[in-house]
Design brief:
Helices cover 36% and strands 16% of the residues. The chain is an alpha/beta fold. β1, α2 and β2 form a beta-alpha-beta unit. Belongs to the beta-class carbonic anhydrase family.
Length: 193
């Protein structure tokens, strides 16, 4: 039995027994926040629990390292949609200690791509086309500095509402302890209504 067939078998039971009912909510976050965090498996249930969020309380966007790598990429688009269309009034960038992005070796990733069948000549074509693959795959050395950089990218984005607090935190993936790196309340513009 494949993993997919196991998932689908469980899903049939999940739906037929109405187990989904306990997760019922709207598309709008109850606590009016959007979180950008890492895709690390240790954070799947730990992060919402550590922040006292349950299903429906927050929009959660995930990327490797909780990075905003491009000002007009899909991560930033998701954050802007959450603010302007889905009623999020605050943004939380939450990195974590012991993040795999802090030890990324781009040469090793490229070697693994080649081992899985990607033609090594493709990397020359990408470089010739102006794609900085090593820069694109690169991680960071310090999670605190990385969180600050992502907070700055969101806070200073030309399309971001300056009254929206953008917070930066780092979570311990072992204990769930949150360390505040940037308190967004101190850096927002006051709304004049």
């Amino acid at each position: 039995m494949t993993l997919l067939s196991t998932i689908l078998e469980h899903n049939d039971q999940f739906v037929s027994e109405h187990q989904y009912e306990k997760f019922s909510t709207t598309k709008f976050p109850n606590k009016r926040v959007v979180i950008l965090t890492c895709m690390d498996t240790r954070l799947t249930e730990l992060l919402p629990s550590a922040m006292n969020f349950k299903n429906g309380d927050a929009k959660i966007v995930k990327s490797a390292g909780a990075l905003v790598a491009h000002p007009f990429g899909s991560i930033m688009r998701s954050l802007l949609i959450a603010v302007y269309e889905l009623q999020a009034d605050e943004v939380y960038i939450v990195g974590h200690y012991d993040c795999g992005m802090s030890s990324i070796n781009t040469e090793s990733i490229i070697d693994k791509m080649v081992a899985r069948g990607i033609d090594r000549d493709l990397f020359k074509t990408l470089a010739y086309s102006g794609v900085d693959l090593k820069g694109w795959l690169h991680g960071f050395k310090d999670v605190t500095a990385s969180v600050k950089q992502s907070v700055d990218a969101v806070r200073n984005h030309p399309l971001m509402d300056t009254t929206v607090p953008v917070h930066g935190l780092v979570i311990d993936p072992e204990t769930g302890k949150l360390d505040v790196i940037e308190d967004g309340y101190s850096k927002t513009t006051v709304k004049n209504d």
